[in-house]
Amino acid sequence: MLMGAPPVPPPTGSWTIMEADRVQRRAYDKLRCEVFVDEQGLFDRSDRDPTDDDCRAIVLVAVDSVGGAVIGGVRLAPAVTGRDIGWWTGGRLVVARAARNNGGIGRALVRTACARALEEGVLRFEATVQRSTVSLFERLGWTSLGATLINGVDHELMRWPIDRIASLVDSTKSFLATLLDPYDSWRDSPAEPLGGTGTGFVGDDGAPVPGTDVIAATDAILPRLIDRDPEWAGWCSVLVNINDLAAMGANPVGLMNSIGARDISFARRIMNGLRSGAQAWGVPVLGGHTQVDVASSLSVTALGRAVRPVPGGGGRAGQALSVTADLTGGWRRGFEGAQWDSSSSRSAAELQALTRMVRDAQPAAAKDISMAGLVGTVGMLAEASGCGAIVTVERIPVPASVSAGDWLTCFPGFGMVTADDASRSRMNSSLTSTAEVGELVVKRGVSLRWPDGVLTEAVRDRVTGLGRA
Fold it and tell me: Helix axis angle, 264-281 relative to 230-247, nearest 10°?
């Protein structure tokens, strides 16, 4: 990011920051030229670069409220050509000379650019700034990465920390170890009511029932989802539990449900979605419990069978990580950026084929992508395997026109993370996209690897705190 102060004489009144239209972009370009070429001599004739020709670039301008003049601006855009993988850069921050003391325009432009980056699903946001503005960026929370030169002038490469993935992990999974700590015997005794999984299946999507080939899985649906879309909540209660069984290579055999609703009509809407899901996946509803005149609630227990259940913690350092996802469909209406609906448009035969993929591939470890998002799920698999992980962002299969930030933190409908020796146990199907996206490593936590070789921290240490399976 480059900052200057051209001699544009705006009044000292109020101003507004907005995305530039075509006319305002021309005014912003002129402002840049006056500063970086004429005043500072940083460029010869023009400061334009290929980013200016990128149709994805966004220009934010500060516009004087009285005369409508552009008195400042900043640019942000994806850092690489082709698919947007969530790495953006900011640049060409400029403020008119006469507006330099007009209420902190430069500071406001930087803050607005950061907010816009979050809206665009950015996971890595950087800027190269002149040394004179480093302190401004530091006060706004940016961190310095090192000195660099632009046309012989000292600059500093800086990064704005984005904790979207870490915050999701913290809010959905980090409390588990603390919650279960008083009952630590659950890990060591398969007969313990709070455990039942036994060594090797700690933190798994389902629990092997001791002495049998039965796998049990239970998931609850968030009340706010039930209240907003009860039919979809019923469908999802089947989807998430079948995915839990599928991640362990289990064939589903039955469902049990518990429903709470404000009245009979609302309970019926939940049940309609649940029965539709049960029919689609070909799994009978064996029974359940229903209450009315209560707050919304919905949980389902799914039972399956697996002769050789696939553990979530069966990986080891050096093994490759793969992601398999159904990229068809789109955002569920009302849950844009959070829930990807790839299942409601699939046939029963297709949905049932998806549930057999892990069973047929038999990877060393597998987990379905759910509340913690793709990266959080990688972290859980790695933690249970006694490892950490590195994920190469550009290799992750992503639907077209979906931001990296949304896809890496959403519930994707059908998505599996698996680990095994490189090129082994890959799940191939015309229904899904599969790619080898990284590897398990000795160092704990999850890092994202970018095209320039830089690693950024996504999960610092553990996800659940439950430790190795």
Answer: 40
Pair 67, 10: CB distance under 8 Å: yes
Which residue in 248, 180, 192, 186 sits closest to 216, CA to CA? 248
Quick one: CATH architecture of 166-459? 2-Layer Sandwich (3.30)
Beta bridge partners of 365: 419
The contacts of residue 453 (CB under 8 Å, 6+ apart) are: none
Backbone angles phi, psi at 117, to 5 degrees: -60, -40
pLDDT band for position 177 (50/70/90)? Answer: confident
Segment holding 393, helix H or strand E: none
Six-digit token string for 325: 């996802």
DSSP 8-state assignment for residue 74: E
Contact between 252 and 242 (Cβ < 8 Å): yes
Element (H, E) at 79: none
Q: What is the sign of the dihedral through the CA atoms of 111, 117, 118 and 123? A: negative
Q: What pLDDT band is residue 424 in, cutting at 50, 70 and 90?
A: confident
Residue 297's contacts (CB-CB under 8 Å, 6 or more residues apart) are 220, 223, 226, 258, 259, 260
Q: Cα dihedral sign for 416, 420, 424, 425?
A: negative
In CATH terms, is domain 15-162 a member of 3.40.50.300? no
The Cα–Cα gap between 373 and 452 comes to 24
When pLDDT is cut at 50, 70 and 90, the band that residue 461 belongs to is: confident
**Which residue intervals of the chain bear CATH 3.40.630.30?**
15-162
Residue range(s) occupied by CATH 3.30.1330.10 in the chain:
166-459
In the block, residue with structure tokens 């990688």: 378
Q: How far apart are CA 177 and CA 169, in angstroms?
A: 13
Closest CA to 439 of 370, 365, 373, 371: 365
Q: What is the pLDDT of residues 364-421, one digit of tens each?
A: 999 999 899 999 999 999 999 999 999 999 999 999 989 999 999 999 999 999 999 9
Mean pLDDT of 308-312: 95
Mean pLDDT of 178-190: 58
